[in-house]
Write a structure and sequence with these properties.
By secondary structure, this protein is mainly alpha-helical. The protein has 14 helices and no strands.
Length: 304
């Protein structure tokens, strides 16, 4: 494994660990502090401010009109639809249904990469994706009793759309990441995303329940983690990983999120330990290993 590939693995692993911890934290925030829609706005506006501030210290590279247009498109897929549509869909379905549907993202990345980026589907990668999906679904369903009622068709379709948008971003944004620094890419993507949601901002912030009055030092610290950690840092790490890795390999790390979220929920007292979680996690990591250890030549020399 080259140094660049190793850096990519570290970046995407760290991003998914951070995001896994975000899941139970966001559950607490939406129950006691803010609505899901208001939390999404805070993530987008907060991350945009952080990326533009960071660009003052890192310097900027010139962005042509064509790349600016691509950044607009990827802000729609990678930020607005990935975050906004997911939160809206989550309000119409159950957490269990949503978590199961999200496990389809690596499979969609595999198919999109094969169709548009020339990344062939090998038996090893297919088995790895299916193994990871089986482990993630098992982990989610093992906690299904606390997940609430079954979701609606419209909510499930919105979650599926969110996963598809994330898959498009993972599979097709590598050429853009090779031409621009992660900070430059993210500052424009989050600015565009924030502007896209500007028309709905007043109605979201003025809606009943947008702010639940449960903020204290703990709530503020959790919100800071969501904005600075689970948005600013994770999107920066993802952009760095996209530049260094094959899309399918990178997407496989999504399967780590349910495991990390489960461990964080146990620590926060929202869940309990069971050996089912250990067995499911073993399936997840076996799937990740199968895909990440696939020879580079088998991927047609694509992103590594």
């Amino acid at each position: 494994m080259t140094k660049e590939r190793l850096q990519g693995h570290v970046c995407i692993f760290a991003a998914n660990v951070i995001f896994g911890v975000y899941i139970p934290i966001s559950k607490y925030l939406m129950a006691h502090c803010v609505s899901g829609e208001a939390l999404t706005l805070a993530r987008m506006w907060g991350a945009a401010a952080l990326f533009w501030t960071a660009s003052l210290f890192t310097g900027g590279d010139r962005v042509g009109r064509r790349d600016l247009a691509l950044m607009f498109v990827f802000s729609l897929f990678g930020v607005v639809m990935n975050q906004g549509v997911f939160i809206y869909g989550l309000g119409k379905t159950s957490p269990v249904d949503a978590s199961v549907i999200v496990t389809m993202t690596p499979l969609m990345v595999l198919l999109i990469s094969a169709a548009f980026m020339g990344d062939p589907v090998t038996v090893r990668k297919a088995v790895g994706v299916l193994s990871g999906a089986a482990g993630a679904i098992w982990l989610v369903l093992s906690a299904g009793g606390a997940g609430g009622s079954s979701g609606t068709v419209s909510g499930n379709l919105l979650i599926l759309l969110s996963g598809f948008s994330s898959a498009v971003y993972f599979a097709m944004s590598k050429p853009l990441t090779s031409r621009h620094s992660p900070v430059t890419l993210m500052k424009w993507m989050f600015l565009f995303a924030s502007l896209m949601l500007l028309p709905v901002t007043p109605s979201v912030l003025s809606a009943p329940g947008a702010f639940k009055g449960g903020f204290g030092l703990e709530g503020a610290a959790m919100l800071a983690y969501v904005v600075a950690g689970a948005t600013f840092v994770t999107y920066l790490l993802i952009a760095m990983a996209i530049k260094r890795m094959r899309p399918t390999t990178m997407a496989m790390y999504n399967y780590i999120q349910p495991f990390v979220a489960s461990m964080a929920a146990i620590w926060l007292g929202q869940d309990s330990f069971s050996w089912v979680k250990v067995a499911a996690a073993a399936l997840v990591f076996a799937g990740v290993y199968l895909v990440t250890s696939a020879p580079a030549a088998a991927a047609g020399g694509g992103a590594r």
